[in-house]
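Structure, all two chains, one model.
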Amino acid sequence: MKSIADWALNVAEQRGASYADLRIVEDRSRSLSTKNGKVGAASQAESLGIGIRVIANGAWGFAATDDLSRAGVEAAAARAVEIARASARVKEEDVRLAPEKAVTAEWLSAIEKDPFATSVEQNIDLLLRVDAELRAVVGVTLAEANMNFRREEQWFYSSVGADIHQTKYTTGAGYAAYAFEGGEIQKRSYPNSFGGQWQNRGYELIEEMNLVENARRVGEEAVALLKADQCPEGVFDLILDGTQLGLQIHESVGHPIELDRVLGMEANFAGTSFLTLDKLRNLRYGSDLVNVVADARAEHGPGLGTFGFDDEGVPAQCVPIITNGEFTGYLSSRETAHTIGETRSGGMVRAEGWNRLPMIRMTNVSIVPGEKRLTRAQLIADTDHAIEMETNKSWSIDDKRYNFQFSCEMGWEIKGGKRVRMLKNPSYSGITTEFWNAMDAICSRDEWVLWGTPNCGKGQPQQVMGTGHGASPARFRKIKIGSAYKGN
Amino acid sequence: MLTQEQAGEIFRRIREYSTADEVEVIFYGGKSALTRFANNVIHQNVAEENYGVSVRTVFDGKTARATTNRLDDESLQRVVRSSESLAKVQHPDPDLLPVAAADACAPQESRSRYFDATASITPEERADAVGKIVHRAKQHKLITAGIFSTSESIEGIFNSSGLSRWHQQTSAEISITMLGTDSSGWQKANSPDVTKLDATKLGEIAAIKAEKSAKPQEVPPGKYMVILEPAAVLDIAGFMFWDFSGLAVLDQRSFLNDRVGKKLFGDNINIWDDANHPLQSGSPFDGEGVRRQRVQLVKNGVVERLVYARATAEKMQKSEHAGKVGLIEATGHGFALPNEMGEAPMNIVFEPAEPTQTIEQMVASTERGIYVTRLWYIREVDPYEKILTGMTRDGTFLIEDGRIRHGLRNFRFNESLLKMLSNVEAMSEPVRASGEESFDMVAPAMKVRDFNFTEVTKF
């Protein structure tokens, strides 16, 4: 790979690039799914290519190709420089990169069992056993299950001498039961909706999820929801499970802290952010209990945002985002760090693959669990009257990340410290900072799970990225509940 | 670009390497470039070239797929082995049909969707067009952000029954946001032919929206008469077309469960799927190489038909639903096999409602209402009543006494598509429109009564 890199870097330099870096990525995946007792999809894929990023005339250019012959790579490098020169026709000032020491390094996801070493028969057998359990429940009309593995091997080189080789494994699995009856469709998912749980781990993650053991309950809950009461509309206290809180963090903390978004670089598509630069260390984002970090280091856990180095060659870091309720940090890059007075990037830049430009992405944006021991059961017991919700069903937030509305698959009314009735179609809405300031309890480390969001979209052309979100159940006071069905 | 002849040669080699009963190979890829701008400068500028093959093999009713972007002999042998080893360990699928026959449902000669002007555009030409947009933004004292993208792509399918299909097209797209201190405006257009896109004109429309929506005022949420621009119509309406799949009804995950043949929308709603429509784009065949038929999905508000992949049509014929879901036949809307989704109509065309009205006429006849240019982050709240939530964005206005008065703070809506398409009071001539939440369509602007806004945000 070094010789391929040299072809590209030499041409970029000869053509006048002041800086160049490149990523050669070899990607391999297996994707399996079942539906109502049959295999739904069965596919394997591989991809190899190079993406070359250059600065010439003070502006960016990027070109990617699947042709790794010398002629193909050199042509791509020349194209990147040509594109950069075109970019410079519409610029105001030169790109400034925060300095970063070039390193030579190796990094590998900590996995115990290579998922690709497991047999497809074994994978499908597990999914079909889940499927059988789900459909054993009378009233389940559709059962879907999936399992996915990915291995990404990346070589990063730069014109200032970086040489970083990283290999990352991603494993994910989950399932859903649907029940249709009398003009209504209800759904329950496990262990999370939209694909289940995903982490940078091996097959050991699948084995730990107790997929078969939970399937009967999940099917029964889907059917029970058909007979459940509609979630009431009004202002109530709210308890969220960890999966939903993880998505709440993703949408109302993770996206608004992206510095490229704050600076207007995403204004045409993903939007901007209410977190303008003046708000850094000058905004009460949440209550004193709210502590959020963006942590890409392995010690945070094997999240989808865990790595050794980002796609600019910057080492993984932990950045405090919200500290005791105060807004303290953004997600930054080498290009944007100076705008917040930093001399170094936070190391949060990644690309979907070899053919996409690296950009600021969430790493593991996680809420710190409560210090005093508090289980979910204890939290419920401590609650006089509230609506508890779990597992996301739909999510929506405005393009500055103020107003949000989430629906969940299942809810419970809590009265006198106990669940008194199941509720269907629960939803809640609010304004980001008002919501986080209403948090008055969060469960402790025993309930904290590093959830994976495998489908975060951003950029043009759009890139899909995996992000991590550690969360434990939490309680919020006086939240607007149930407006999703208002007027319908 | 990968040519049909080169693809045919690769297919011949793949057949040689394979021991499967049947083989089907899909070719994909092309060249694309995207110039992205923000804060009145080009900040990202990318180009890509990539081609791949996706090989499906079949053994005794068992099938699977493997994909690679490496086209050398060794890689092709590996992708064939990968597909075969995966297929052999599947359980036999009783619904699996033989690969499509060569002469069955051959596509008609499709309209040319390949334009040299689009394929040959240079980074400098894209940059100069962006320069014009930036110039227009500065004239209006606004900041602009957006994209100018172009591509040429191929899509091909060959199988061991002798089927051979090939489609080549170009695409160009410009999307522009203009930002003021407390407002914004947006305009987007695309075409296979880049000469049909006028960057300056699109920038001017976005700039006027941004200027007119400055100093937005707040009005309370509630049910309002709304006028939705075509992009807003397609972004919200697009959420229902996945449910027009035969397999979605067989799976009972569609809002059309027990509703095909019923009147769900207003008399003025007529919707087709028509890949050959002059304003549509895409290939004339589906994921198995079957010709995409023109299908009327909704007639005078009644759901007439669903679309079908070959296997779904056979399954539906044998099901309890046969006789209750209209005409059942393979319509050429299947996705590449194997998959869980079956099929979907992806070339939606709204039929003009006579008489059509211009947007200006719709505004002039509105005593009080809301004018919506763009919707954002739309998600499904209820799958059977098709309640969708989302936000307005980049230019929302109050209409009073037949005139647009001023900009408004953005709303959250929670609206049932069934209600919305039953409350359409007027439609414009349908145009080729492009949004962000759904695929491109030929869609009109709509004037809709009692559109349900439930909250207001802070800007």
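Chain A has two domains: 2-227, 230-485.
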